[in-house]
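Hi all, long-time lurker, first post. I run a small reading group and we've been trying to get comfortable going from sequence to structure in the token notation. Rather than ask abstract questions, I figured I'd post a concrete chain and ask someone more experienced to write out its structure so we can walk through it together at our next meeting. Sequence below, copied exactly:
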Amino acid sequence: MTTNGGDRPERPKPMPRPESVNLTKPYWDAARRHELVCQRCVACSNWIFYPREQCPNCFSTRLEWAPVSGRGRIYAYTIVSQPADRALEGDAPYVYAIVQLDEGVRMPTNVIGIAPEDVQVDMAVTVVFDDVSSEWTLPKFTPLQAASV
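-- Answer (accepted) --
Happy to help. Here is the structure in token form:
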């Protein structure tokens, strides 16, 4: 275990804990390939996020995983200055946001590549992928202008 420059050992950062490996495995496998996917209802074409076993619109269980654009807008956000988990203290301040994808679903995420104080509601963003370990890749978002530079 490494230290944080003081006498306290660094704690490992929390990683995703999929409640149902079978349900979320396609999402995490796609993220590892740097692809963003969401569920889509075969019966009514409704896009769905977070992963579930039935469509919240028509209650069909005929769901498929499909690629999404990875583009959207910041729906809401907060700047985290005092993380609840000590392992994230070194990352603070950081932006925790809800991004509404062009497909309509809203995803919780982090916004990176911009100073936290410059983030704004309705800012156009695009997905980027953070390979946080050999097992986990986290979809995060960055301002659309920053991604195209």
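A couple of things your group might point at:
The first strand starts at residue 37 and ends at 41.
Strands lie at 37-41, 47-48, 63-67, 71-80, 94-101, 106-111, 124-131, 137-143.
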